[in-house]
Structures are given as C-alpha cells and as structure tokens.
Amino acid sequence: MNEKINVLDNGYVRLTNVMGSDLSVVNSARVSYDKESTELDEKDIRLIKFLAREGHTSPFRHATLQFEVYAPLMVARQHWKYIVGSDHTMDAWNESSRRYVTEEPMFYIPQADEWRSAPENSKQGSGSTIDIDEGADFTEELMDFVEKGEWLYNDAISRGICAEQARLFLPAYGMYVRYYWTASLQSVTHFLNQRLAHDSQVEIQEYAKAVYSLVKPKFPISIDELTRTEV
C-alpha cells in the first residue's frame, strides 16, 4: 500500500497499512449477540450511526490504520500531544532520530505570502496574512538562519562531533521529522476532530486534511459519523 498525499512544501502523509473496514466495526459490535455480517447493508449502516451517536466507541477500536508522516517538528509535536493525551489505547509512534540519522536535513520555510499576523483577541493561533513584501523579508531571514545552522551542523560532524550533539546546531521547529503513527479508527478521528477545527494551527490542519482524505475511502460510513468537523 502506498497511498500518499503531499503537504506543505516538502511534507507528506502516506497510508502504509489498514486493518479492517466499516464491516469490522459492525461485527465487533454484533459479536455480543453471536451475529456476523458478510456484506455491509442499510441495517449495518444504521448500527454504525447508532454506535457513534450514543458514544459506544469500543467497536471503532477494532480497526487500525498505519501512517508514515513527514512533517516539521512544530507539527509533529502538536500531533504527538493529542496521541499521549488520548484515552484511545493502542496507539504507537516511532520517529527517526538524529542520534543515528545524518541524512540531509529538510526545513519548512513559508513563502512570502504565507506569513501570518498574531491574532488580535487570543494568545495563540494566527490572524490574517501579512504584506507580501514584509513576508519576503521574513522568508529570506529564515533561509539565512537555516543555512547558518546547517553549516555549523556539518562543520561539527566533519570535526568529529557525535551526531546526537551536532544536531544542537540545527534550527529545530521547522526541521522535518519522519515518523510512523499506528492508531485505532477512534483515535484517528479524535485527532481529526481536534486538528480540523478552524482555530487549530494552519499547518497541522493541512496534515489532518490529508489524513482524512486517506481514511475516508477505507471507512466511508464510520469516518462521517465520528468526525464532527466538515472538511
């Protein structure tokens, strides 16, 4: 399986594995009555809607999905926050480490028309985009900062410093990291409900949209019933 959606400038979300379907949710619920469906019908769809509406969520944890994600650290850490804070058990997360990996670092650098102002009435989030000429200045400054950090990192490596310390020279928040995320269908929709919200960080919204687009064809009924935010 290699279904992939590109996100931001160099990032992506790739669906690497799926276990189950909407039918798995139905049969997990019906096992209490020793019943099993072999093909999804209208009665099964009504059952999924009932389970989601009434908060009977355990059947949705019998389906799992695995993703490979390549995202700036600021996105990955926000994503991780909702994994560790979730009570939907059996999530797994494995991430590449620059203790061992010395591949060419990649950084997220917003274009001139992508810089956003601070919000007027909140301590977090962002407002409207700023003037493009001013944005161009910030893009250039960030590129210079990244270039300097990369030079210092490579210099440290070439002079024999271990990778786990040399990485201190790399600008962290915009640097891309690669990770595998395996989660139940319920946990995936928990993430989507949080990160598709209009007031969430724009960059992680783009990753949530990619996850939604990959999950929707696999669980068309369940995803619509469990996801509260329109995409």
Automatic annotation (TrEMBL):
GO terms for biological process: dTMP biosynthetic process; methylation. PROSITE patterns: THYX. Pfam families: Thy1. Keywords: Methyltransferase, Transferase. Its EC number is 2.1.1.148. The keyword Ubl conjugation does not apply. InterPro entries: Thymidylate_synthase_ThyX, Thymidylate_synthase_ThyX_sf. NCBIfam families: thyX. This is FAD-dependent thymidylate synthase. The lineage of its organism: Bacteria, Bacillati, Bacillota, Bacilli, Bacillales.
